[in-house]
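[step 3/7] fold_predict: job queued, chain A
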Amino acid sequence: MNKKHLKSCVWLFALLVVGLNNLASAVPGWTAPTALSTMTLFSLPANNASVVVVANGDSTAVWINESNNVVQYAQRKAGVWSAAKSLYVPSATKNETTSSAHVVVKSDGSAVAIFASTTPGTLQYCVSGGRVIRCLGPSKSFAKVATLSVGGTSWSKTNLSAQGILIDDTQIAVDASGNLLASWRYLPSAGQPTQLQMASQTTGGTWSTAQSVYSSNNPISLPSLSLAANGEALLAWQEKLTNGTSISFALNATYRDSRGVWSPVENPQNLAAQTWTLRTGIDGNGIATLVWDNNYSVQLSRRDNSNASSTWTTPITLASAPGTQYGYAGPFAAYSPDIAVSTGGDVLISWLESEASTGLWQIEAQILSANGLIQSAASWPVDPQTGNSYPSATISADGSAAAVGWIDNGSSSANVASFTPASGWGLVICNRYWLVGRHRGAG
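[step 4/7] structure written:
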């Protein structure tokens, strides 16, 4: 890794959601970017910040300082960001690590964060072949949840999961009533199936006991959780399937209805090669959307979960222009899509696209209506030398404003493009230059 990419500020996504709030409230212009923290990068993605913004513009950002695994946070009040503070400090003497930090804000204004914590096993005595030897004991891993009350200065923290040897991919979502839903990938012990687990908390209530909604002896990756305003939910993931010498990858999904009942697992699509990105979204009418990259293209499938007889649609390949051909041999290639869904069913999708013959790299964005028609499309060039400028998408609940943010890893600049139905796509805001670690999408 180039030394100039060893530092990372985490204000891009804060800027993205704050800018979206400005659009929705008709405040002209963008706020200046605020550097919340600088940290040294090692093996984790550069952009691990999770940011949430409420109607008055107050925001909470949570991220992992990758130099010491401390979970940190900052808050924006009355337009001013606080200094970075520690939410959770892992044990350095036990080499404890953290991962997958995410945050939401409930309807009462309290912030709730989730993350995973893993402590390596310690040396112990084991019996092998009739001999007593020194061996490494099992690691201890938990999904942890932390809550910061309105006006509070310290987070209350608790374990959300039982102890396992590997817990990761922690996610959390909140509906319009303040009900919470959390998920994580859970391996209880060596040789056991990997589980996808859930826990929920109703407004004013306590967290439920963890519930396993799926388990498999096959490798599971890329779980993606979405929660609609009415409490319906969608969980999707990728599963590696091996049949003799043949390997394939299944995209699976399960759906929670308004009664809180999870559906049997469905298989929207099987892939010959693994996807590196899988994203989900669900609107207030129960329309679920999956987006993933497949063979250098971006594909989409939808399902009407309010209709028991509905099935996942045949995947369609999204294209920046009609007739564009995607694939390993080109002429075009698409990567790392992201998705955001409004309550009414507007779907914002963004991805990175390249053209082999010209060397052109662009960020693409499309807004689809509930019936799948393209309402608006736009694209913006990025530095052709590097690519890897993966976008992040967000849209307001009522669909009145949207934004796409990305980091141009060639110029090391952070960029945001905004959309409002009345005026279309605004000019790209190219913010100050900064150093950012290169990374691939989840996988």
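[step 5/7] annotate
Confidence is low (pLDDT under 50) at residues 1-15, 21-29, 39-46, 431-443.
The two ends are 19 Å apart (CA to CA).
exit 0
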